[in-house]
Amino acid sequence: MTLYGEILRAYRGFGASMRRQLEQNPREEKLLLYAVLAAFLGFIARIPGLIYVAQNSENQELTIANLIGSNFVTTFFYGLIMLYIIASVSHLIAKIFKGAGSFQDARLALFWAALVIAPLYLVVVALRVVITAPDFISLSNLAIGILFVYCWGTCLSTAEKFNGALMTSLSIVTVFGLIAFGFRVLVLL
Questions:
Q1: Contact (Cβ atoms closer than 8 angstroms) between residue 123 and residue 57
Q2: Taking 90 as the threshold, does the pLDDT of residue 131 lie above it?
Q3: Of 104, 114, 125, 186, which one is least surrounded by beta carbons within 10 A?
Q4: Can you tell me the distance from the alpha carbon of 100 to that of 25, in angstroms, rounded to the nearest whole number?
């Protein structure tokens, strides 16, 4: 099956999709491809917002080219590195709770979840061009975030051989929320 077909098929069941991915035992090159494709789709989805910011800014240095260029570097350099770090941290935390996966399985879970959700994010961004209500934007961001965390939680629980996808998803939100809060407190000090 094609990658596009496999992504569409994933919406029938994230756990079953992740099991199929694990059965293929993908090499690191394929994992990197998943991460790059997810990052690329996310980058494309952010372009309309960047154009809007550049056109409505009074700062002359905020040009479309500057914003898109800096976003490109951030996405494909720092963003990819952060994906690898987040996957590693999630695996280390899963090990504390007797996770039976590997670092590669944790990377696959995160990268596959990001790739599965990225096309839906593109659709939502396209809808924002038509539906410009601030409530729609907020609710769509929340819905995409919840769906991503649930997809990642399901994939990670499958990769680490846990029983509860919902508990894994809630754990992801709790742990990474606490980490973000900790960084926020450190910045304020």
A1: no
A2: no
A3: 186
A4: 15
